[in-house]
Design a protein that fits this description.
Elements lengths: L8 H10 L4 H19 L2 E4 L1 H16 L10 E5 L26 H8 L3 E6 L33 H8 L5 E6 L5 H6 L3 E4 L19 E6 L2 H11 L29 E5 L9 H16 L3 E5 L7 H16 L17 H12 L2 H14 L5 H21 L5 E5 L15 H6 L5 H6 L2 E9 L5 E8 L4 H13 L13
Helix pairs in contact: 2-3, 9-11, 9-12
Bound molecules: glutamine.
């Protein structure tokens, strides 16, 4: 038998149902894996050992009494930007050190109601700002495929923990690529749902009109299982979509005959690593061999996506992060007078990356500049959205790379912020337009680093991208590869 930590969620559910394993055994195996590997990898900010074992015990008892909830007894972990009742939630920031939410985010509550066992909270770039997890105020997370490289970001802890078999699946969040890019750097199925598909209640806001929570797992089927539980209307989030949630598992037919695939010519960019382009083009060829139709399309406003994102998202961040004043949440640097308490708390509590974004956003929103910057960027956002509306009237999905390169080394992009920002050039438009996207493993480069294929779908097109990703994944063995460190 495979080791318990090698099981996918679907396989583990079968074994739990047949009584071949218990949730306590499964959970203990993951806690042992954390003990063995996390000292090097550093994916977890908090490990909730006792809670996990209690929940596992309760899951086993419930199952013995005939319960069969969709994720009963499955050990998962959660990015530290998502609120967990009674468990410290820091957003990877010093300013929230010691902050213990008094409620669960809706997605966490839904996972708990579905039987999840919670292993802990995962490292991330501070307030989800970054692409490498190097902006965490606590420590760097290592990529299990090469310990000298970043796992991607901002959901780097989420990605590394699943790749290293320390959790069966995780929730990440994606404001400009933070689920898909670390998913591709770590060889995972990683899905950013359409804006509004998953409730943001209890997700600590960075760019509220971009943020989405989604699953990161080792198979597309596992991602579908988690999405099934967390998707759907939430009265606590007025931006959550009322549309009924389809049966995502039923969408995984393995059939892509007649699927119309668009290749946006703006996404096959100069500067893309040769191995990445080769693997992505080979994957697209394989779709054609499986009966899909390929067509080149154009998204003419793509080059404005990064600038529009950095104006609108930082503007929203400047408003969202105004609440960390030392009075209501987390750390306080008490100076005895109010103004200096604010100043020092924020000055010492936020990292450099967060500060420049707050400053940029505050500038873009200030009187006299608002129309020229924020207003203009919103106009550009509409044009980008219209580009997608137009191509999705002609094709079912779009395909491209997730990131122009594979995982980079620590420090490589930190000295050059523009280079770091450009790492998101292929993912950010989806958030600007509110559409859905998934990263699925499609090969390795010459240094044995994973490459991700990105499949984008229209708003609420999750069934179609899951179907396409699943068909490709199952026709290949990339997703089964395991990092040497963990073997
Ligand atoms: N890397 C992008 C940024 O730094 C996106 C981050 C995210 O998706 N949370 O803003």
């Amino acid at each position: 038998m495979d080791s318990l930590t090698d099981l996918t969620i679907s396989e583990a559910l079968d074994k739990l149902r047949s009584g071949a394993i218990t949730s306590v055994e499964l959970t203990q195996a993951h806690l042992d894996q954390i003990d063995q590997y996390d000292e090097q990898i550093r994916a977890f900010l908090t490990v909730t050992r006792e809670i996990a074992l209690e929940q596992a015990q309760a899951a086993d008892e419930a199952r013995a009494n005939g319960d069969d909830k969709p994720l009963l007894g499955i050990p998962l972990a959660i990015k530290d930007v998502i609120s967990t009742e009674g468990i410290e939630t820091t957003c990877g920031s010093k300013i929230l050190k010691g902050y213990v939410p008094i409620f669960n985010a809706t997605c966490v509550q839904r996972l708990l109601d579905a039987g999840m066992v919670l292993l802990g909270k995962l490292n991330m770039d501070e307030f989800a700002m970054g692409s490498s997890t190097e902006n965490s105020a606590y420590f760097e997370t290592h990529n299990p495929w090469d310990m000298e490289r970043v796992p991607g970001g901002s959901s780097g802890g989420s990605a590394a923990s699943v790749t290293a078999r320390m959790a069966m699946g995780t929730l990440g969040t994606d404001t400009g690529g933070s689920i898909r890019q670390p998913g591709s750097f770590c060889n995972l199925a990683a899905l950013k749902p359409s804006y509004g598909r998953v409730s943001r209640y209890g997700l600590i806001a960075y760019g509220s009109s971009f943020d989405q929570t989604g699953p990161m797992t080792r198979t597309v089927e596992d991602a579908a299982r988690i999405l099934q539980v967390i998707a759907g209307l939430d009265p606590n989030d007025s931006t959550s979509r009322p549309d009924p949630v389809p049966n995502y598992l039923e969408a995984l037919t393995g059939d892509v005959k007649g699927l119309k695939i668009g290749l946006p010519k703006e996404y096959f960019v100069d500067g893309m690593a040769a191995d990445v382009e080769k693997a992505v083009r080979a994957a697209i060829q394989q779709f054609e061999d499986m009966g899909a139709e390929i067509k080149e399309v154009t998204l003419p406003h793509t080059k404005y996506s990064l600038p529009a994102y950095y104006i609108v998202a930082t503007s929203e961040a400047s408003a969202n992060l105004a609440r960390y004043d030392g009075i209501r949440f987390g750390t306080k640097v008490d100076t005895g007078d109010m103004w200096n308490t604010y100043r020092k708390t924020r000055g010492e509590g936020f990292g450099e990356e967060v500060k420049w974004r707050i400053m940029l956003g505050t500038y873009a929103l200030s009187a006299g500049y608002y129309d020229a910057w924020y207003g203009k960027a919103l106009g550009v956002r509409s044009l980008i959205k219209q580009d997608f509306d137009k191509v999705f009237s002609e094709v079912d999905v779009l395909m491209a790379a997730v990131s122009p390169t594979t995982a980079f080394k620590f420090g490589e992009n930190m000295a050059d912020p523009l280079k770091m920002i450009l790492a998101d050039v292929l993912t950010i438009s989806a958030n600007v337009a509110g559409i859905c996207g998934i990263s699925v493993p499609c090969g390795f480069d010459s240094q044995n680093l994973p490459i991700g294929l990105q499949i984008l779908g229209p708003q609420l097109g999750e069934e179609t991208i899951l179907r396409a990703a699943h068909a490709y994944e199952q026709a290949n063995e990339w997703y089964q590869a395991k990092p040497t460190l963990i073997r």
